[in-house]
Amino acid sequence: MDVLITADEIRERIDRMAAEIGAAYHDGRPVTVVGILTGCLVFMADLIRRIDLPVRVAFITASSYRGEATTPGKLLIRDELLPDIRGRHVLLLDDILDTGKTLTRVVAHLLDRGAETVKAGVLLRKVGRQEVPFDPDFVGFTIPDRFVVGYGLDFNDEHRHLPYIGVLDGPAA
Prior knowledge:
The protein has about 170 residues and is of the alpha/beta class. The protein has 3 helices and 9 strands. The protein starts with a strand and ends in a 6-residue tail after the last strand.
């Protein structure tokens, strides 16, 4: 597997993203950080420890990939782990912006649930795959259209534990 983004590069960029997020929420009001499971877990854990703000942590699931699939199917959103977000600032975190469909739908869902504002942050923004207009407020890295794993991203629930972003060789590539 080729390493696309090293662990050190990820660490440095997350430090800078945390500073950008802190500046964006300068009013000091608490922020509810909502992560889209499961891919966001590693990214979210590292990022929230570096954000100098009062934060509340929550999760939502939104998935259109199943098993070994590398092309999306029907999007399913589950929000049982989401607290009351009415009137709150929400920072939505996801591992990757690919087609834009998931993030667009989840932002709309959070606004429907009463969030005052929703900003989105992604670890990776993939070039050439976006099908709907969506501009995240915070982006870690822009990457080429390759199938990547590591640092929370998986193929068939494997490779999430890798401390770097790698390009997967083989059937998913």
